[in-house]
Amino acid sequence: MGKLEGKVTIVTGSATGMGRAAALLFAKEGATVVVADYDEAKGRETTDDIVRDGGKATFIKTDVSRAEEVEALVNQTVVTYGRLDVMYNNAGILGQVAPTADCSLENWRRIISVNLDGVFHGIKYAVPAMLKSGGGSIINTASNASLVGFPGLPAYCASKGGVIQLTKAAALEYAQQGIRVNCICPGGIQTPLVEGMQGQVPEEQRQTMVQMMHPIGRMGQPEEVARLALFLASDDSSFCTGAPFIVDGGMVAQ
């Protein structure tokens, strides 16, 4: 029996990258997975891949920055499957790379609306559903940029720092009601988001940067983050709540 057998899960931002890896792994571990993403074509690819491998999944197009869409996502999940056990608020964007004074207001607002508001929306609407079924696990994607500063990413750092504090507050609020709330702080993971940032750096500098930033000497893979998400989603982490879990190859230990 899989670690998530019989559980109903939502994974936002699961069309690509870490979210896709988590959705695939959750399904292999017996979960019913609701794939939620703004990218309908790739989101349906993830869903089809799960079903093709014998898993259970459906796709719901969702812009997490819009409260009404996240509310509808949770409501539709509960109507379809009767419950919600795991909410993985993973969707996020990097945005413009520029110093704080050059960060446009549009860029600031967009990043905050997706990375921070999106997590708030996920918690806000998941909690009532989980309370009705006796509890659950909420997982939020923060970043090692929530623990150390990165020049040129003021909005991203601010949004991810906010995710950690939101995680802690919600964890304390619902600790005695059977809901655990934790967050994951990935480092440089080989995803389309990070590849986009790497594209702004000359090729000859990339490998040097990777080795300097990660003591392990390489980028992480989405599946390595997914395995941590599986731990937090499952009963293996039954005594864990309110915590940021770092998976960054040793970057912030320096």
Structure description:
With 254 residues, the protein is α/β, with parallel strands linked by helices. It has one domain: Rossmann fold. Helices cover 47% and strands 15% of the residues. It has 8 helices and 7 strands, in the order E-H-E-H-E-H-E-H-E-H-E-H-H-H-E. The protein has helices at 17-28, 40-52, 67-81, 105-132, 154-174, 192-198, 203-213, 222-233, and strands at 8-12, 32-37, 56-61, 86-89, 136-141, 179-186, 244-247. A 7-stranded parallel beta sheet has the order 3-2-1-4-5-6-7, sandwiched between helices. Strand 4, helix 4 (105-132) and strand 5 (136-141) form a beta-alpha-beta unit. Helix 1 (17-28) crosses helix 8 (222-233), helix 3 (67-81) runs parallel beside helix 4 (105-132) and helix 4 (105-132) runs parallel beside helix 5 (154-174). The longest helix is centred in the middle third of the chain and has 28 residues, at 105-132. The protein starts with 7 loop residues before the first strand and ends in a 7-residue tail after the last strand.
Number of helices: 8
Strand order of the largest sheet: 3-2-1-4-5-6-7
The SSE order reads EHEHEHEHEHEHHHE
Looking at how many chains there are and whether they match, the oligomeric state comes to single chain
End-to-end gap: 40 Å
Q: Biggest β-sheet, characterized?
A: 7 strands, parallel
CATH fold assignment? Rossmann fold
E-strand count: 7
Unreliable stretches: none
Task: Report the portion of residues in β strands.
Answer: 15-25%
Query: What structural category characterises the helix and strand content?
Result: alpha/beta
Overall domain count: 1
**Considering the protein shown, what is the CATH homologous superfamily?**
NAD(P)-binding Rossmann-like Domain
Globally, the shape reads globular
Query: What is the residue-mean pLDDT, rounded to a whole number?
Result: 93
- CATH class value: Alpha Beta
Gyration radius from CA atoms, angstroms: 17 Å
**Helix fraction?**
40-55%
The CATH architecture term is 3-Layer(aba) Sandwich
